[in-house]
Amino acid sequence: MPRSAIATHLRGLLAYKGLSVADGDLLDASLELYGKENLDYVDCLLAASASRGEGQVFTFDERLEMADW
């Protein structure tokens, strides 16, 4: 299954009416990045958090350094 499809399906789950999600904007941004880049989800979550000014990401992962986030 393509990463973009995985991200779309997970967004659908997060939008489920009976589900309460803490920091949904962060999860949405991380899933958007996950759908576009070839990164592990945790790296996408860290990058999304850092792009909101919530810390910095220090990594040796060249894919994360090169990603457009």
How much helical structure, as a percent, in the residues? Answer: 55-70%
Largest beta-sheet details = none
Radius of gyration: 12 Å
SSE ordering: HHHH
General shape: flat
Number of domains: 1
Strand-pairing-aware structural class:
mainly alpha
Percent of residues in β-strands: under 5%
Q: Low-confidence parts lasting 5 or more residues at pLDDT below 50? A: none
Number of strands: 0
Mean pLDDT: 90
Span of the ends, CA to CA: 23 Å
- Discrete helix count: 4
What's the quick description here?
By secondary structure, the protein is mainly α. The chain has one domain (3-66). Helices cover 59% and strands 0% of the residues.
